[in-house]
């Protein structure tokens, strides 16, 4: 069902400081920065590698407010891995299939994600404690 690990999301207090750390330590490059009001985050995507089924990234996440998902996570658990995102060919189809297996969907419909993607989240309690994101990449520009 999954094409790749699209990204691993890391919650942090200071996005610019964490970007500098990942760049200088691992030689990664920022390929996108966005503010996503709906998700309550300021985020950056750092390229890791390209594969036959698309690219993979580290997503650094700074909360826009303390009562956002990432703000609450930081208050409760501190900085660290927040979610794992799997690439899927069709996010609506994957939501239907996984919902049919009894996994709780946190979104009723796909939402806007980084770099023009469509995304949806699965409840961490139904996935072994791992907040799981489904990502459908936008169609390639011709
Ligand atoms: C909460 N829990 C987690 C978790 N967040 N477990 C693993 N990983 C996480 N990130 C646990 C928490 O410890 C509780 O367990 C339980 O789930 C319920 O959490 P809660 O604190 O009572 O509830 P909330 O209000 O914090 O909500 C948690 C959920 C929320 C996961 C429902 O954060 C959510 O809807 N997230 C989806 C949206 C999101 O995260 N957006 C930001 C990324 P105990 O303590 O009861 O055992 S945006 C993004 O990735 C974008 C834009 C992109 O990729 O393009
Ligand atoms: Co994400």
UniProtKB/TrEMBL annotation:
Give the record's GO biological process terms: L-methylmalonyl-CoA metabolic process
- So what EC number does this one have? 5.1.99.1
Q: Which segments constitute the VOC domain?
A: 4-137
User: Pfam families annotated for this entry?
Assistant: Glyoxalase_4
Question: Record's CDD domains?
Answer: MMCE
PROSITE patterns for this protein? VOC
Q: Name one GO molecular function term.
A: methylmalonyl-CoA epimerase activity
Q: Which UniProt keywords apply?
A: Isomerase, Metal-binding
Gene3D superfamilies, per this entry? 2,3-Dihydroxybiphenyl 1,2-Dioxygenase, domain 1
* Family (UniProt): Belongs to the methylmalonyl-CoA epimerase family.
Q: Which NCBIfam families match?
A: metmalonyl_epim
Name of the protein in question: Methylmalonyl-CoA epimerase
Query: Can you name the source organism?
Result: Spongiactinospora rosea
